[in-house]
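debug: dumping io for the single-chain case to check the tokenizer round-trip. Nothing else runs in this session.
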Amino acid sequence: MNNLPTNDLIFNEENVVSISSQPLARCHKLVKSGGEEATVTPSVAPQEHEPHDCDIDEISHPLNRIDDDSQPDPPSITPSNDPGSQTTECEQTDEEIETMDINRRNQRLPARQSLGLLGCVTIFGGSLLILPFLGFLLFLWGGAGSAPGGSRATTLWRVIMLNGWALQSVTLSCLTLRVITAAQAGVCTSLLAALLAERQYSPMTTIAKLSVLRGVNGSPLHLLRTMRSLKAQNVSQWPWKELMLASILTLSSLAIQFSSTILISDFDGAVLTQFPIKTRRNVALSESTLNINFVGSVVAFKEGDGWSTFGGKGATDLAKPDIRGLSDTGLQQRAFLPYDKANRTTLRSFKGPTAVMSSRISCIPPALDATFTPIYPDSTYPYGSINGTILFNATFGDVNLSANACSYDILHNTTACIPPVFSCTVANGLISGSEQWTEWVPSLCHLIIPEIESTVPDNPPTEFYSIDDIIGASAGRWNRFTDPWDEAAYWPFLVIVTNARIDLLKTMNETGTLSLPLQPYQRFGEWNSFKLTDNSVINITMCSAGFNMSLAYVELSSNSDPVEPSVKLNATTLSLDGERIQTLLGASDIQDPGERGILSLENIEYLNSTSSAAGIDYFQPGMDMESFGSILLYNSLVLWQRLGISVRGWNQGVSVGVCSPCWGWTWATSRDIAVLFTRIINTSGRAALAIDAVLYAVMSTWYYDLLPGFNVPGTVEASFSKACSIPRRWWGAIVVTSLVIIHLVCVLTIALRYLRLSRYSRQGNIWHTVSQLVSTRTSYVLDIGNDAGDEVVAEMLQGNDTLAKIDYTESGRVGIIAKLGEGK
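debug: decoded output
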């Protein structure tokens, strides 16, 4: 060993290699022969080394060749003919070696080695995993369906939203997206660094950073900062593609980190329909437990409580009079909801038994022989009264109506007739300061039928009726099959509307005028107009109302929450406004149930003595028919007759004061009813709609007063609304979707570009990134940086920083090569 030259490559038993100060020719090797160390003799005499201007490292390190199947086989070594010789010689020529170099430079590493298993999973597997999460987010945004309230949405979407899991789902999905995209950004940073290290000449300080970035998953922002030190002779040589990809990767991966915040900005409050639930609920009264005194006053109407929502249908003609002057509301069916107000205003669907109010009101222009008389209880506030006779033959004949003023009353077993002589008080408008009230002032006068009004029973006499009298087509009581002017309908009214004011009455008092005859002026629609003075007119219409209550199986639905409006004070006119109540009851041009704030009555099946066993099961399964019929009959009579008592209480020739504001000698009524009645008369002119509203107001009060005492259960299926936070806008979803798509395109572009162009890099591996930096030309840099920061190294190399890149060197190894003319 002592005779070996100092410039040779020495192997010890542990294959530890040491490098002398002079490089060897690239084909020379040292081998073991017969267990002894031997020296490879160069085929040519050693020459003094002259560095090539494109080669920084001309030493082929043996460790660089270990386990590299992609590298060409080492040159063959043949033994010398001299038996005593311990040397072998390389048989390869320069041409063969050059061919090997070209092949090695053009050969790509397999994807498993170049990108690695973890890199492949992160790039391609992560991209596939992103798609279902992105699709899930889009499902949350677009899964509500076309129906309001999400009632037709998929079960999964409704479960997520109704349980308040939407925000959690978005947060977890975005967390997954952030983790995957961050991992992909790190891998792609390594891939871009490899492309730059292999394809772009960079300062020595930069090539070291790029080489290290190949083996670690760094930040794309760090890569961009590193790229600032790249140099090129002209613009065309600048790595624009890598710069663009790195910029897009940085921006997209950074923006996706805020995806959760962006998406949550799309959320807002919404009301969704919950799943329907079957329950047993009290829907009727039993005869044995009913206490009729529970009802209370027959005239009271609770302010703000009476305008409850219901299930109904839209009217078609709004009681518009025909050419004869006959105005008819048509059959109005309103299903009451057996819930308190909080549940009524969130009810979205209902299937089951409940009380149904059926009504129909018709009005015609009456023929009258009457006078208007002022009455002076005091000199400050006089009031008027109309007294006279109704000419029934002329009244019915003028409208070609087959009707009469008499009807058979089954309760009293007698024929009851509307008396032709009537007396009705009239409400008048007030004068406020110098401004006179300009609206028409209405009064509602119930025409008294002595045979019926004289005796009002204290309790509903069920022995006189059958359920078919209430809801069927048999005679005895009005039902939905009969006309309002049928003999079974005997609730007649006069609706009196005037523009006369108190000053007219005062003038009559001052002039001694005892009365003014009602002079027929003109007819329009259902109204007859009578002239008092040149400026004062009274309009009168005669109406008949048919009404009943019964239990029925109904199906109700709504796409929005029902509303229960109340009278509001108009801040501009300082007057009370009942517009929303008018809309609720269908007395305006708005007829869609959803816009009115009611549930749509989809189906109705009246329960009677011929109802099937299924109908009985609506209440208690196994209930006998007799008990079933008794419940139906008793509840129908209780609800129906209570309203009858209320209406019949408006007697003695005194009208009901359904005006606001006004003055007169009238029965007191609710402010809400007065405001609503006045509004309907002044906006539509339809007295039938106004009477229908009054009947509903009174009936709803009775029903909801009785509701807490209901003790007969029925099976109902109902769904309610729930306030939830759901995606209401699409801007955030569009932004995040665009960012994810841009990110995926960028990632796949970087990966494919790396697989196509990279030759010497193994993503995620460290040793090759360090080994390819080691050479005689970098030894002095490594010495400087052994115990110093990057700033010190950069300062030492300032002005003498060689441009280099990673490539296959002439020495047969992968390492750093200098740019032509840059070798020092």
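debug: round-trip ok. Confidence is low (pLDDT under 50) at residues 1-92, 290-299, 432-436, 454-476.
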